[in-house]
Amino acid sequence: MSFFALILKNLLRRPSRSLLTILGIAIGICAVVALSSLAWGFEHTWENTYKARGIDLVVAKPASHSGMPGLFPETIKGDLQRLPHVREATGILADLFSVEDSTGILIAGWEERSFLWDHLTLQQGRWPDESTGKAVAMGTLAAETLGKSLGSKVQLETAEFTVVGIFSSPALAENSAIIMKLPEMQALTDSEGRVNFLEARLAPGTTPAELESLRLRIRNDFKGLTAFAPREVPQADVGIRLAKAMSLATSFIALIVGATGVANTILMSVFERVQEIGILLAIGWRRTYILGMILLESVLLSCGGGVVGCVLGIVTVKMLQVVPFIHGKIAGEISWSLIGIAFLVALLLGVLGGLYPAWIASRMSPTTALRHE
After folding, report:
1. Closest by alpha carbon to 120, among 102, 142, 104, 87?
2. Domain annotation covers residue 33
3. Cβ-proximal residues to 209 (8 Å cutoff; 6+ apart), any chain
4. What is the pLDDT of residues 230-286, one digit of tens each?
5. 49 domain-assigned
6. CA angle, corner 326, sides to 321 and 330, nearest 5?
C-alpha cells in the first residue's frame, strides 16, 4: 500500500468523524469568505460612488456617535473653492433613516445645480427644484424596496415628500438612496446652514505633491475638518471599522473552533492506531514519516473543509444580497485573492491542528506501542 493510500484509508476509517471535522473547518472558512467579502464590498461600493461622481477630495469632520461625519457650516465651501487647485466644490448633508418599513436608507441633500447630478440618469419624472416643493428623487433600488413610483408619497421623519423622479446611477449606493434639495434636508434634520460633506473636483494636472499640500492646508485652515482622498473615506468611517472588527473577531472564533476540531479528530485517530504506528516503527519507518503521515491527514481534512467553506461562503454572500435589509446596499466582492487567502487559512489550520498529534505519534516507543491494548 502506498504512502498516500494509507493516509486516505486512515481518514476513511471513521467517515462520520472526518465529515464532521470537514464541516467544522468549512463553517470557519465560510465565515472568513462571507464576512470579508461583505466588508470589502462595502468599502468598494463607496469608492465606486466617489469615482462615479468624479470626486478628487472629500472634506469632513471625524465621524460622530451616529457613525456619520459631524456637521459644520456650509459657508466653508466658499473658502474651500478659493484654495489653489480647487476647481469646484459642493456641500452635501447625508444621513441614514428608517423609512416606513425599511431601515438604513441613505437620504442626501444636494445643491440644485451642483455637478453631483451629472452622472445620474433620470429614468422617470424630473429632478427636485424650487418649483416642486417637498419632493425627492429615488434610486431605482430604493423605489423598488419601498414600493414607490412617480407621484407616490413617502414619509421622512415628520414630513411627507412626493416622489418626482426615479434615477439610476453607476454607483450601487446611490441606486439605494433618496435625494432631495439641500435646504429641504437641512430643514428636515434641523441643520439649517450646515452640511457634513464637502466634495471637490481639482484642476486637471494637479500633482500628488500639490494634492498633499492642499490637504495639509485644509487641516490647518479649517480646524476640526480633514481632507480625505475618496478611497480613504470608507476606511475612516466608524461603522465600517466596527463592522470589519466584528467580522474579524467572528471569523477568528469560528477558525479556532475548526482548528480544535481538527486537532481532536487527528489525536483520537492517533490513539486508536497506537499498535499500527508501533508496527510501522518496528519495520523501519522513520519517525519523520510518521510525523509527515499524521500532518498530511490533518492538512487533507482542512483542505477539504477549505473547499467546502469557500463554496458555502460564495453561496452565503449571494443569498445575503437578496435579503431586504442588505439588497442594493452592498455588493459582496468575491475575488480569487480572497479565495486564495481563505484556502491558505484552511491549510494553516490543518498544519496547526495536526502538529501536536503528529508529535505524539512520532515520539512513541515501538515496544510500548505494540503492547498497547
Report:
1. 142
2. yes
3. none
4. 877 766 555 566 666 766 777 777 778 777 888 888 888 888 778 877 888 888 888
5. no
6. 75
